[in-house]
Request: fold
Amino acid sequence: MKKSKLVMVGNGMAGVRTIEELLKIAPDMYDVTVFGAEPHPNYNRILLSPVLAGEQTLDEIVLNSWEWYKENNITLHAGKKVVEVDRIKRIVRADDGTEVEYDRLLMCTGSNPFMLPVPGKDLKGVIAYRDIADTNAMIEAAKTYKKAVVIGGGLLGLEAANGLMLRGMDVTVIHVMPWLMERQLDDVAGGLLRKSLEDRGLSFMMGAQTQELIPDKDGRVMALKFKDGKEIPADLVVMAVGIRPNVELAQKMRLHCDKGIVVNDTMQTVTDARIYSVGECAAHRGIAYGLVAPLFEQAKVAANHLAEFGIGRYSGSLTSTKLKVTGIDLFSAGNFMGGEGHEEIVMSDPFGGVYKKLVLKDDKLVGACLYGDTVDGSYYFKLLRDGKNVGDIRDKLMFGEAAINNGIGDVGHQGHTKAASMADSDEVCGCNGVNKGTICKAIREKGLFTLDEVKKHTKASASCGSCTGLVEQILMFTAGGDYSATPKNKAMCGCTDHGHQAVRDAIRENKLLTIGDTMKFMEWKTPNGCSSCRPALNYYVTSTWPKEAKDDPQSRFINERSHANIQKDGTYSVIPRMWGGETTADELRRIANAVDKYNIPTVKVTGGQRIDLLGVKKEDLVNVWKDIGMPSGHAYAKALRTVKTCVGSEWCRMGTQDSTQMGKDLERAMWRMYAPHKVKFAVSGCPRNCAEAGIKDVGIIGVDSGWEMYIAGNGGIKTEVAHFFVKLKTAEEVLEYTGAFCELYRQEGWYLERTVHYVSRVGLDYVKKKILDDHEGRKALWERLQFALDGEPDPWFEFDKASVDTRQFDALPA
Reply:
């Protein structure tokens, strides 16, 4: 039977989802051809913000790889823009002359960013924020320029501003409305969001209207002028002021367009029944949707009719918005602004960063706005969508589903409680319409243990990502101890098919002592490896076989080769070690003398209670180290960095234990310890915890009877509170248990895996079994760490022993 020809114009998320749905129900019905204007396979446009912020790579946000198109016999014309469609002859023509006939045509042209029609909008340095090219342009601009202005205080504008700030730019957000994200938040939530973002370093100008963009002599933007006459400098201007359906081609084809390409309930265009349209370019009953969930609902209906099943209708979507703006959770749905005849239930905790407003009418929930705590967003949305009478639960409604189902006393127990209390029919992923039962069934029947596997098999958490936390809870609840945040078999990099664990096991079991031996034994596809796998292999062989395997300095990152942190201007920072944050007048004099002698421009106290010398020239590094005469702080290394302490019982009237001495003892015992990633300790002298031990890789807190030990905390981009591990009586026990945990992590952690992710992967119970329950094993780990560190050189003063090539510090000839 001859296949019909389906051509899709556009290679975005909505269109490719339609193809995916079609392949499920009618895999052999069409020869499929796809035209995409961008030179990329289908990717998750929603996750461009984490790419801009440096949290993800472009490869990680690809939804359908090049191989997927080949495996499904789909012809992809990437980087080709369709410029003409002959509806009489049914031929699609691209800008390079490519012509393809069709029996059915799927229009998925998406939307275009709106650019303010102001003078200067076409200057260099003025861009929109819509695709990979825009993202790359911003990343490159951040390497050279300092001042950025983002016009638009909606979701996209705030994500752009946050990403540019994390890239080192000074960012100001311009918003014409009185508060941020006015379509998703009320004025109170918008105000809380603004304050939180200001605390992080963003600046805002509210109610400001841009009049023109001012160029410099080279034709690049250099300033913005407002209607009130004020001006602010700008090296980069990002316009994030909304989108418009891309109907240029549709209008040229003489398809009826009004707020988009007008379609009926079967997603067929009202002009031509052979042509379908889904996504941001389609207008259904007068609405063009811009959220993922409605577009995926459209995709399912369109696929159903393309397969000629003749069932299924799209009747529009009741939308909710569940977002994460720069780490802050937001949710809104329905009429959250209220009005005449509406009642409002409000809970506001500005200090705690939580705000909730529920809007009721006739004892039914008609709107919700949540800021900071959105765990019950999907529950509220279900109540709103179902029109359920909530009169009998009004007193508990603000406290969420757990309070209603289990009583107020259980409100604080989220996490597993939330996952456990959900019914199988409850929706988890609104974007893809996936409920809890579907996820649990896939986990059990297919043996899924990782988030990536759940995404692949169910699509849950694969779109906007706002339900990721809940999916992980369900995964942990269902898979138990087998849950892993990282796929066990994921390849280390493109040079090999082997994962980190397989490589670690091979090195240990076969006593592989060099990078070359390991590559040969594991049949590396790329003979010499790459900048991703070589540092990992170097760490694995040296940590597995200390004193036998030889360190390869050239397989370390530049900071570790130079033993100093390279800065954005090419200079370096030097951070000498200060045991437990304690120093002396003599050390301070030597530091001050070096600052004067080598014209070091900036001296700063770090968050880890040390002194940072910023702006050191590379050719001065050796002499700066020599003149300071202090050990390496390893601030550049995947190693033990700081041991933060409070003054403890030695000085503080609240202190119960001598935290400063304990910190110094820990640091002196383990300061030369290299690890899969950076490691930070903290020791507090009493439960008031002034040293912030609760968010460190190892945190020690003094109590009346001794010490409490906490592990696997993280104070980085995503703060993770450490787990209580054990209560200890003596300082000697603190050293032994801390060293044993660190050595277990050194031996079993994957390169660039923080302790928080290692413990999440193997499970806290596993770590307790290895260290708390196994007395001999714990002592063996502690002794092995001492053996590995014995004789480890200080790289600042033992160049030969540490294999430091000092020629790298020689000044280049003029």
Summary: The radius of gyration is 29 Å.
